[in-house]
Amino acid sequence: MSAISDERARLHSALVAACAGLIEAERVHLYTPPTIASPCCWIAQPRLNVAIVGSPGATMIIATFPVYVVASGYEPAQAALNDELVARVWDAGASMARAEASSAVPQPVDVGGASQRAVVVDVDVTVTARTLCPIEITTRALATNGARNG
Questions:
Q1: Is 105 exposed, middle or buried (0-12, 13-18, 19+ CB in 10 A)?
Q2: Counting Cβ atoms within 10 Å, is residue 128 exposed (0-12), middle (13-18) or buried (19+)?
Q3: Which H or E element spans position 80?
Q4: φ and ψ at 71, to 5 degrees?
Q5: Do 25 and 13 form a contact (C-beta atoms < 8 A)?
């Protein structure tokens, strides 16, 4: 698994916990669902950016995960539920180490009929390693380094 997959899974767990009591856990999707049955939320494909912190500079990767929240019902009910879902997603981001929600933007979503109100909440997650793929450490490499250092 990559650092992106790991961070997505961590965000998903935080979302399930934060949305408990408001929407069922099955409606908090790890990926974009094939059909949208609102109310629900899902984690879309992240944007990746490089951040250089300090001097001379440590390079980190920031993964911005768009989290979509969609509510159904008449307009006042949709807006009220979206407000609550956005607050829960925002809190989920704040509950994670190295993560923070950074924006929330209203956006209509086509669900195969009338468009429904949605909000996209960006959750920024700092990936502390420069590589996104796991580094394989072999027994031979450990033995070689041990021989040099020992």
A1: exposed
A2: exposed
A3: helix 75-95
A4: -125, 155
A5: no
Residue from 135, 134, 2, 123 nearest 63 by CA: 123
Task: Indicate the residue type of 55.
Answer: S
Q: What is the pLDDT of residues 14-38, one digit of tens each?
A: 999 999 999 999 999 999 999 888 8
Q: Which of 4-8, 36-40, 50-54 has the lowest mean pLDDT?
A: 50-54
Beta carbons within 8 Å of 107's beta carbon, 6+ residues apart = 68, 118, 119, 120
In this predicted structure, what is the pLDDT of residue 148?
47
Q: In degrees, to the nearest 5, what angle opens at C-alpha 54 toward C-alphas 50 and 57?
A: 60
The domains found in the chain, sorted by start residue, are: 3-149 (3.30.70)
Structure tokens, 110: 């086509």
E-assigned strands of the chain? 28-29, 40-43, 47-53, 58-70, 99-109, 116-127
Question: What is the chain's length?
Answer: 150
DSSP state of 20: T
* Closest by Cα among 23, 25, 30 to 8: 30
Q: What is the pTM of this model?
A: 0.82
